[in-house]
Design goal:
about 30% strand; 10 helices; alpha/beta; 4 domains; 7-stranded mixed sheet
């Protein structure tokens, strides 16, 4: 192998080049960064999610069913699944970012479907577009209320609310014994103008009454104050009084679906009532406009006669004014006579007599309505105050209790108790019934069989007498009548103007007339010359000569 020479030291040496990054790799990097940016942006722009529990998923579909607020799309249903116990469904919805403030305590969700209610037809647009989830947030104007906490799990409503939470107005609670013909959507009237509606009802805490929720729209809610009274305006109210037959109704709608009306009865300071204030529903407008009941006074009354026609709720009347009502009717046994008698429990509202009268009663009795002393009742009972059953309707036979004065009533002892016993007197009808019964008893003692036999014998004797009169006396009577007729004819002939007797009687009457004149002249002469009876009649005086005659 030859040795390298000096010229080989300058020979070129081959070198290895280094690796360089190609620009082609920038494309996937940029795409990855763009995708990550889009993911981050979508994540940042995505709104919150919430779960809503419903009883059924009818009309709901993931990826299609919308969530709307005021008919604006604010979200979409992402998932529909059964709940763990399979008693319902859980719907997962995602809201827009700008609607995140609507998810807070008090927000309500429901499924909008076609519905027919008393207030009208709703959801007809869903027949073409499909069902959607309606939303009613507790916040006003879409702004989150700092006092309400955020929430992500909700229980949906099966029935849409009648009034949204952002509607101007107030809710009030009305206390009633029963619901009657009221229902959700029934109108509320003020001076026959609809100003609100019934939005709900439920049993009260005791289960003995019903709480009716009503909503009064603004600005009419300002007319509800402490002196306002509500009454049931359902149907048609008929009444018969001195003015005749009267019929009252708020509107045709209230006749069909019921309704409530209110008005301010007392003229005092009218301060608008607060929201959720409680009021009592009166059964009618007349009851609402009556005097306030005030503190009740429970009483008992004993009636020894029949109380047929007296019902619970019948009025207690005093001088034409209703001061109470009957609460109960029962029977008790009197051990001394072993006879049953009726015990009527009732409630008196003395404040219906008027504030001025109540002041005088309290001053006179020396007590209060909460703690009566009984002085007033004792004094009135000593003067003859009694309870009496009276007929209120002749057609139906309904009775009522009247508190009146009976000066001739027998004295009774009275003791004030928690439920005092008010003495009673029988009514006129009962007295009449007793008198009729007494007459019937006396008539029952009459021997009608013996009287009938005697009357039969009398009728037979009368028939025999009539027969004898017809066969024996009738011919003789006819002959007598014919003889009498002939006698009357003879008398008529004698008295005829052409007969001799009338002419002779006329001449005799003329002679009697001349004799009477002569006697009258003689009487006048003797009265003028009484001595003529002794001396005789005086001679006539010579007549005096006429003047101017010759001798």
């Amino acid at each position: 192998m030859p040795e390298p020479g000096p010229a080989s030291a300058h020979a070129p040496v081959a070198r290895r080049k280094g690796r360089r990054l190609s620009w082609i790799w920038l494309v996937p990097v940029i795409a990855a960064l763009g995708g990550l940016f889009l993911v981050v942006r979508v994540w940042m722009d995505a709104g919150p999610t919430a779960t809503i529990s419903f009883q059924t998923a009818e009309g709901l579909e993931a990826g299609k069913t919308q969530v709307r607020y005021k008919e604006v799309n604010v979200g979409l249903v992402e998932r529909v699944a059964l709940n763990p116990d399979r008693s319902g469904v859980i719907v997962t919805v995602r809201l827009d970012k700008d609607a995140s403030g609507l998810l807070q305590e008090g927000t309500q969700f429901w499924v909008v479907r076609p519905r027919l209610t008393l207030s009208g037809v709703s959801g007809l647009g869903t027949l073409l577009s499909g069902a959607y989830i309606g939303m009613d947030p507790a916040a006003l104007g879409g702004r989150q209320d700092a006092r309400l906490a955020s929430k992500s799990a909700f229980v949906g409503l099966e029935i849409p609310p009648e009034v949204t939470q952002d509607r101007a107005g107030k809710r009030f609670t009305l206390k009633a014994r029963d619901l009657g013909s009221l229902d959700v959507g029934s109108p509320v009237y003020y001076r026959r103008i609809p100003v609100g509606q019934v939005v709900g009802y439920r049993l009260d805490g005791t289960g003995e009454g019903v709480d009716v929720q009503v909503f009064i729209d603004a600005p009419n809610d300002a007319y509800v104050n402490r002196a306002t009274r509500f009454w049931n305006a359902s149907g048609v109210d008929f009444s018969v009084d001195a003015r005749g037959l009267q019929m009252r109704s708020q509107s045709l709608l209230s006749v069909i679906v019921g309704g409530v009306a209110f008005d301010t009865i007392e003229q005092r300071e009218r301060v608008a009532a607060k929201a959720d204030a409680e009021f009592v529903i009166f059964p009618s407008e007349g009851a609402a406009r009556a005097q306030p009941d005030g503190v009740p006074l429970r009483i008992r009354m004993r009636f020894d006669q029949s109380v047929r026609g007296l019902v619970v709720g019948a009025p207690i009347d005093s001088y034409g004014a209703a001061i109470g009502q009957v609460d109960s009717i029962g029977l008790e046994l009197d051990r001394t006579t072993n006879r049953f008698y009726a015990v009527v429990g009732a409630t008196l509202y003395l404040e219906r007599l008027g504030a001025k009268t109540m002041g005088e009663i309290k001053e006179y009795s020396g007590s209060s309505l909460e703690h009566p002393s009984g002085k007033l009742l004792t004094s009135m009972i000593e003067q003859g105050m009694r309870a009496q059953l009276r007929i209120g309707n002749l057609l139906t036979g309904q009775l009522y209790v009247a508190m009146a004065m009976f000066p001739d009533a027998k004295p009774v002892s009275f003791k004030m108790e928690d439920t005092p016993l008010i003495p009673t007197v029988p009514n006129n009808l009962d007295q009449l019934q007793q008198q009729v019964n007494s007459i019937l008893v006396k008539l029952d003692r009459v021997p009608f069989d013996a009287l009938g036999a005697e009357l039969n014998n009398l009728l037979r004797g009368t028939a025999s007498l009539v027969k004898r009169l017809d066969t024996r006396l009738a011919p003789e009577a006819q002959a007598m009548l014919r003889q009498a007729s002939r006698s009357l004819a003879a008398v008529g002939g004698v008295l005829s103007p052409d007969a001799d007797l009338p002419a002779s009687a006329d001449a005799a009457l003329q002679e009697l007339a001349r004799a009477a004149r002569s006697l009258r002249e003689l009487s006048d002469y003797l009265q003028a010359y009484p001595d003529a009876l002794l001396r005789g009649r005086a001679q006539d005086a010579p007549s005096a000569p006429r003047q101017g005659s010759s001798r």
